[in-house]
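In the lab's daily routine, each protein ends up as an entry in a very long ledger. A line of letters takes care of the sequence, but it says nothing directly about the fold. The fold becomes a row of whole numbers, each drawn from a learned catalogue of backbone shapes. The protein below has been through that process, and both of its lines are reproduced in full:
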Amino acid sequence: MKKMLLITAGLMAALSSIAQANDRYRERPPVVVSPDLTAPWIMQLGGQVRPAAAPGYRVQPTRPQVIYQQQAAPARRTLFAPRTQSTQIRPTQQAEPARPAQRGLPVQSASVRANTPIKSQIEPQFLPQMVSYQTEHAPGTIIIDTNNRFLYLVMENGQAKRYGVGVGKPGFEWAGTHKVTRKAEWPSWHPPKEMIAREAAKGHFLPASMEGGPENPLGARAMYLGSTLYRIHGTNAPWTIGSAVSSGCIRMRNEDVTDLYERVNVGAKVIVI
């Protein structure tokens, strides 16, 4: 009988505990997750209890919501900025101007210029041309008009082929009649001692000799006149044609002296006026 009373009392006590437990957890407090998802804890909020602020965040005291501000990360260099963001240009850099293709204009290749402009054009009247030329001299004769800077090769039927030339500078003019005594292709140059001394006084130092080639002042061809030091020759400075710049020689463009060279034989008469 006593055992039955004890069992009954125990059951009633257990049922009473379960009822109290159910009443206790009938309304459970909300579960609030920390805004820092990497934080290792979960905050169980009850009533108006505020959570402790995690590092790098601050909590607004008048509102139950958690408001946080992330700490500024160290500046990193971005290679490509999103299209929706405006790219800020540093003061030390300048924006590249829009190219013609970006502005919808046709692209035109720019001309390339040398650092030092090189003169290569001469006046049109000094280019080779056939002219009417009346003379008593036989075809094949060369007549050089130093005043007008023209060389005439007399041809048949009152015609002559005219070339522009460079002649002796003031103090080096001369006139006379000679014959072509020798012809040479890409001749070597041996400036006379008087010329070397004269140029040295000006600060220009000439070599004792120079092999033939494009840089040689005698150019591509040379026709030597009599026993003198004068020649009809090419040049490495074609822009001087039509000027009085030489030391007495008659200079021509390389293409012109080559043409004349093929038309003239050794022994041809040369008249300088």
